[in-house]
Design goal:
Helices cover 31% and strands 19% of the residues. It has an 8-stranded mixed beta sheet, sandwiched between helices. Strand 5, helix 3 and strand 6 form a beta-alpha-beta unit. The longest helix has 14 residues. The protein is globular, with a radius of gyration of 16 Å. It starts with 5 loop residues before the first strand and ends in an 8-residue tail after the last helix.
């Protein structure tokens, strides 16, 4: 099992990633939340890999060991992931995204639906403008495992997302599982319900764990995701 950090050139930058499982197994891409990195999935990746599946968990730009280039538009992160899959020769994958990683995942599914076999969105808000807007964040002291410019840039887009993100949700026609963290999550759960109603092949499941669902309730999270990604339930390519 390959769990050592690796790196690949994609979209003009270096993206670090971790991988688990047999190289010839069906690929699953895991996209982490803001401020985390690919190691955030270490608690559940081995179990997913036992499917068997080949699990890939990159550090998004501005995070961890990937480059911190200063440009942190959501669409640019989407293009990074597109290029990452291409660099690894992956024509189609199941994609699991948490929070920021989930937004990147649904933008990828909108833009390049042929790349996404199945989509899992873990406690991901709908792209509605924040009212009131999120105030300007204050940088913590000391060294950070992410680029502070990424926090400021993603806050701006979270406050006022491009309306086309919502308008293009109908392009997400692959089977989609939306997992909400329940009432203790900071993400409004009615937004997850709104997404589920809009996507034509969506199912919704709530795990009362707060925002960090796969970390707080890994066994429950894995059970739901494993069932959704099970080979017997796959749509033929």
């Amino acid at each position: 099992m390959d769990t050592e950090p690796r790196a690949v050139q994609a979209n003009g930058i270096t993206l670090a990633y971790r991988a688990w499982g047999p190289q010839d197994a069906p690929p699953v891409l895991l996209l982490h939340a803001r401020g985390a990195d690919g190691a955030d999935w270490s608690g559940i990746a081995p179990a997913l890999a036992a499917g068997p599946r080949r699990i890939y968990a990159p550090d998004l730009r501005g995070h961890g060991r990937s480059d911190w280039p200063g440009d942190y538009a959501y669409e640019t992160m989407r293009d990074d992931v597109h290029a990452f899959l291409g660099a690894l020769g992956i024509a189609r994958a199941d994609v699991v995204g948490h929070s920021l990683g989930g937004a990147v995942a649904y933008l990828l599914a909108q833009h390049s639906p042929h790349l996404v076999q199945r989509l899992v969105l873990e406690d991901v808000p709908a792209p509605f403008p924040l009212d009131p807007p999120r105030p300007l964040a204050e940088r913590p002291g000391g060294d950070l495992p992410y680029d502070w410019a990424m926090i400021l840039a993603t806050d701006r887009q979270r406050n006022a997302p491009d309306p086309v993100w919502w308008d293009d949700m109908g392009r997400i026609t692959m089977p989609t599982l939306l997992i909400g963290g329940g009432p203790t999550s900071a993400i409004p759960q009615e937004q997850i319900a709104a997404l589920a109603e809009l996507l034509p092949e969506a199912r919704r499941h709530t795990i009362d764990a707060g925002h960090l669902v796969h970390e707080a309730r890994p066994e429950e999270f894995l059970a739901v995701v494993e069932e959704f990604l099970s080979p017997a339930d796959r749509t033929p390519s």
